[in-house]
């Protein structure tokens, strides 16, 4: 009974609507930037139009590229960003953004990045939250705005951001990261040209310093942001950390996203001030007459339950790897969607042999015929890519050779976090005879070492 | 204090935008930039001046010598002159082993050393009423060193019969045609390289299109395809046994290099192996110690974890060369004879080379930080 009471008390707590509105504007701006950047680099053509083959997420093979019309998807996403920024038909805009952005991501898992996944699930969450009840065209046209929103609508975003950091920190608690300073050692060692600190890049103490401080940062930052006293300090850390990673590694817009997203931890007054300043700069005059106190969603309980369910899934999903035997970094079974960022460096190659069973003749496939360099790189180190590609090759060569009786065999060597390269896939297994799925992939050869930790 | 909170990200954004345009070269755009402080130009200069140029020039002069002997032999064919032509061909064939990796998979390489040579098509060419255009890629296996090997060593079963053949003009002409062509295409390849030499030497960034990157990749490809596969795996049938351990898969002795003078096959193989070591150790064509991949790896101090010990990658690669040396001792001069049946010694050589290929292709290339034309990544 007490718990129920506590929940009810919590559900009735409120936060400033300005916090969500400010978040909405920053989110929209960043997504707009990110999409324009993607377009300007010519990546739409390179990743979604040019390749003749796309790697699919399991169960999403129906998400196909639109070829030249993929630009329409980007156009939709960009228009919805504008809608999000302005708070114009917000619900429609954010839903369209979620759908178009997620569709694009599902076309080819080659481009999977944790931060794209973060944007997808964050935009899903935002579909349920009232980000448009103040400082938006929606409230302007309805001539009605709200000063407050239920506290949990703001907290839901905080939880999601906290999960990203904390889980990324948990994943760093492994023997490679902490006691071998890998893979940072590999990545930093080649950066000796870096201004000022370049001379340390090859030093062992520097690798360890970076590894340990990275892990501590990820684990503690959500809490430092939650506590009012440490918040300004924490934010400065956030900025420094992300600037540093941005300059060192090619991680695109992710640092910007995280820096802006963590602003949600600041107080409602601060966000109100931000909106006021923004309003003054843009010379906006508030004409909303009906300013009410608390916004309450019409289907309050249901929305709350959906958000809770969503967040619970986010809490549990990263741990699904425990259901698989073998080393997670080696098999990558349950690796994605778990905030495992910058954790491993896999180097190596995978080549395919087509064998004609009737004659015993065989030949090696030149991957360049079917895959671009990026796809080839991603395929070489990830078993689900390998089996998918093997089936593609099987279909292709059955037709070309007019021979149903062929097999596809793999030779691959992978070096994980600076270990000696090891054979990766069982070279004696015909991959046409295995199916992709959620079951453990028995045709991955065992990892002849151990990485302790989470 | 609280105002700063909004100023900082804005300043950061400005700073990041300025930073990212600077470093996009090394990370994302794939156009330029190396990150470490090793002088790659020094390395590419060494490849060109100490290996490519002297080896290719030497090949050119060996081919010119061969061409002279061919002229003398075809003018008045006899046993002594045949012996000279054969010896000259062998000399050129050995030098070729040092050249191929620098022209890997080029049209020039395919013209020079596509084997097994196609005897049927060679015969067609010889008997052709119209002049044959050897520039056609389908005619790769009718020319170059392997075709010369056939024409001088395999045309007939006895030397006397071979000499008799060269009484006929069409045989003389075809032999001269091939020999002259090798001189011509080698001269062209050398000149073409000279014109791009300076820009190549300075093209050392991490992108796939830089000369540095292309040559490292070609070195790996050469070691894999031209060395391991063509010289060892294909003739001995190692490949298929890997997949079908229980099925006896036949060997292919006809795929041995210099099939018609197979007593030379191991010598040619060892020359190629020597060239591979030269490239790694930075030994010049005239055997002086210069800069090679080894120095680069030493400079980076790259280590790999082997049985729980962080080992210098360079030390590991040196030990792999030791393994190849040991395995090489168990195969004898004539590969054709030795690949008639299953020969575990060849499998051992294959395995030893394979370990070297893996170490270079996976660990060393990674250490050099050669990016593929790349995009955002968060390391997963």
Would you kindly provide a brief summary of this structure?
By secondary structure, chain A is of the alpha+beta class. Chain A has 2 domains: 11-321, no CATH class; 345-433, no CATH class.
Question: Which helices and strands, and how do they pair?
Answer:
The complex is a heterodimer of chains A (454) and B (380).
Chain A (H helix, E strand, L loop, with lengths): L1 H11 L1 E3 H24 L2 H7 L20 H17 L3 H18 L6 H13 L10 H6 L1 E7 H21 L3 H5 L4 H6 L14 H23 L4 H18 L5 H8 L6 H14 L8 E5 L5 H17 L11 H4 L14 E11 L5 E3 L8 H9 L1 H19 L4 E11 L5 E2 L31
Parallel strand pairs in A: 2-3
Antiparallel strand pairs in A: 1-2, 4-5, 4-6, 6-7
Helix pairs in contact in A: 2-4, 2-13, 2-14, 4-5, 5-6, 6-8, 8-11, 8-15, 11-12, 12-13, 17-18
Chain B lengths: L1 H26 L12 H36 L3 H21 L7 H6 L6 H9 L16 H11 L4 H7 L3 H33 L9 H26 L1 H6 L21 H17 L11 H8 L2 E4 L2 E4 H16 L6 H4 L5 H24 L13
Antiparallel strand pairs in B: 1-2
Helix pairs in contact in B: 2-3, 2-8, 3-6, 3-11, 6-8, 9-11, 9-15, 13-15
Average predicted confidence as pLDDT of chain B:
87
At the fourth level of CATH, the homologous superfamily of chain B is M75 peptidase, HXXE motif
What would CATH call the architecture of chain B? Up-down Bundle
Give me the side-by-side strand order of the main sheet of chain A.
Answer: 5-4-6-7
Oligomer: heterodimer
Q: How are helices and strands ordered from N to C of chain A?
A: HEHHHHHHEHHHHHHHEHHEEHHEE
Number of separate helices of chain A: 18
Overall outline of chain A: globular
What structural class do you assign from the helix and strand content of chain A? alpha+beta
Most extensive interface: pair and counts?
A: A-B, 73 and 56 residues
